[in-house]
Amino acid sequence: MRLEQIRTIAKSNGIHTSKRTKTELIKSVQLKEGNFDCFGTAATGECDQSGCSWREDCFASATNKMS
Predict the structure, then answer these.
(1) Is 25 exposed, middle or buried (0-12, 13-18, 19+ CB in 10 A)?
(2) Residue 40 C-alpha from the chain's centroid
(3) DSSP labels for the chain?
(4) Sequence-ordered list of residues with C-beta below 8 angstroms from that of 49, at least 6 positions apart, any chain
(5) How far is C-alpha 12 from the chain's CA centre?
(6) pTM of this prediction?
(7) Cα–Cα distances in Å, from 25 out to 29, 44, 55?
(8) Distances (CA, A) of 63 to 34, 42, 43, 66
(9) pLDDT digit string, tens, across residues 3-59
């Protein structure tokens, strides 16, 4: 997902978006959703937060960090 799309989602959740990275914004949204702020940490491809909106992006980000 593009940063502008993430900013729009964050703003709709009442999160200030200035000077925040993509990961910081997503983690803030995760907390608002009632999930852990763990974006990009599922290096093993396992995650128990099945209701998280960022699940697929998270797995991709975690995989990229491992390479």
Answers:
(1) buried
(2) 7
(3) --HHHHHHHHHHTT---TT--HHHHHHHHHHHHTS-S-TT--TTS--S-TT-TTHHHHHHHHHHHH-
(4) 30, 35, 36, 38, 55
(5) 15
(6) 0.87
(7) 6, 23, 15
(8) 24, 8, 6, 5
(9) 999 999 999 999 999 999 999 999 999 999 888 999 999 888 888 888 888 888 999
